[in-house]
Amino acid sequence: QVQLVESGGGLVQPGGSLRLSCAASGSIFSINLMGWYRQAPGKQRELVALIRNNGFTNYADSVKGRFTISREYAKNTVYLQMNSLKPEDTAVYYCNAHSGVISWGQGTQVTVSS
């Protein structure tokens, strides 16, 4: 079992930046993929970005060129650097890990508003 704890959310103005962190614990040796999802009010949860153990990354079209996912193995942490934020990026952001089972964090709120 993998436990995930997100941090770094908050309120930011349009055009601003935030960095989300997701710290993993437990059976981290079994993780082969980690990702970030988001869910806005009244909408389905959607994939934002993912990173595989081989370094392969994939992004939703809506965030390409603005968001960057990375992983720091020494700290068992995955990051989501978000730049040029837009109001439509407002959502609860969830960390996700695949290790034979799928684990989710509790979510962190990101609000982009002036």
Task: Kindly list the characteristics that best describe this protein.
globular; 7-stranded mixed β-sheet; 114 residues; mainly beta; 4-stranded antiparallel β-sheet; single chain
Please provide a written account of the structure.
The termini are far apart. This protein has no helices and 11 strands. It has 114 residues and is mostly beta strands. A hairpin with a 4-residue loop joins β5 (46-52) and β6 (57-59).
Task: Note the topology.
Layout: E1 2-7, E2 10-12, E3 18-26, E4 33-39, E5 46-52, E6 57-59, E7 67-72, E8 77-82, E9 91-98, E10 102-104, E11 108-112
Parallel strand pairs: 2-11
Antiparallel strand pairs: 1-3, 3-8, 4-5, 4-9, 5-6, 7-8, 9-10, 9-11
Based on CA atoms alone, the radius of gyration comes out at 13 Å
How many strand segments? 11
Contiguous low-pLDDT stretches (5 residues minimum) are: none
Class inferred from helices and paired strands: mainly beta
The largest sheet is: 7 strands, mixed
